[in-house]
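TICKET: design request
STATUS: open
ATTACHED STRUCTURE:
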């Protein structure tokens, strides 16, 4: 598993280290820099820190924004990943609409919406799907993006899927395992004691959880930033080995 682990003291430290990682990747890139954001509470803090503390370090005119997954909700719904990204990062930075690509997961036909978004992703990247940086989180069940345990592997780069029972908006669009394997760089943010056992399982055991499958498929640069609570189940030697 070609993964680098960066420990953080707490959620604020995680957000600061994630912002520094983003800035380093964006400033090292030549030409257009394509990033795919994710939803969830941990990326929210990272977005806020990046917009408030590190915005002057990036040429935002070169940065284009995708979403790695989206719920079948209108963009004005607070539970949509697009709404969260808009409110916490894109609006504060003043990113022009032409540099933001929203998955239309609220469209009537999710299959068509997936195909249209795949065309956008392929058109922004070369080779197709080689996003410069994908930012992901991990759910308590080991899911990432909208790839859930026990579901069949979707084809293509973007797929229409159903989320696990009990989640907000079970109809989704998501980057597939294939798309996540093609990303040039991946940044995974994990925070909180309730994810500690799952993170240990993902990093130290074999299995078929979505996050395990994503990590197995990675060939490019992959970095996990996890806070002290999320790392609580790992032994110090295991953490050192991954650093």
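STATUS: resolved
RESOLUTION: sequence designed for all positions
ATTACHED SEQUENCE:
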């Amino acid at each position: 598993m070609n993964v680098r682990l960066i420990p953080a003291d707490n959620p604020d430290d995680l957000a600061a280290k994630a912002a520094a990682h983003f800035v380093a990747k964006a400033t090292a890139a030549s030409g257009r820099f394509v990033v795919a954001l994710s939803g969830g509470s941990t990326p929210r803090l990272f977005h806020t820190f990046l917009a408030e503390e590190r915005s002057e370090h990036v040429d935002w005119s070169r940065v284009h924004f995708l979403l790695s997954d989206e719920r079948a909700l209108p963009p004005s719904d607070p539970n949509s990943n697009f709404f969260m990204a808009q409110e916490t990062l894109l609006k504060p930075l003043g990113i022009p609409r032409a540099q933001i690509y929203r998955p239309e997961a609220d469209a009537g036909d999710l299959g068509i919406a997936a195909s249209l978004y795949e065309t956008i992703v392929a058109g922004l990247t070369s080779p197709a799907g080689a996003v410069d940086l994908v930012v992901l989180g991990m759910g308590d069940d080991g899911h990432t993006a909208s790839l859930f345990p026990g579901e069949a592997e979707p084809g293509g780069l973007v797929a229409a899927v159903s989320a696990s029972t009990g989640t907000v908006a079970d109809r989704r669009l998501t980057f597939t395992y294939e798309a996540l394997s093609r990303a040039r760089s991946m940044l995974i943010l994990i925070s909180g004691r309730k994810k500690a056992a799952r993170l240990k399982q993902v990093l130290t055991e074999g299995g078929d959880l979505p996050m395990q499958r994503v990590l197995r498929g990675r060939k490019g640069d992959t970095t996990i930033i996890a806070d002290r609570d999320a790392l609580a189940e790992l032994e110090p030697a295991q953490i050192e080995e991954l650093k």
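CLOSING REMARK: The first helix runs from residue 11 to 28. The radius of gyration is 17 Å.
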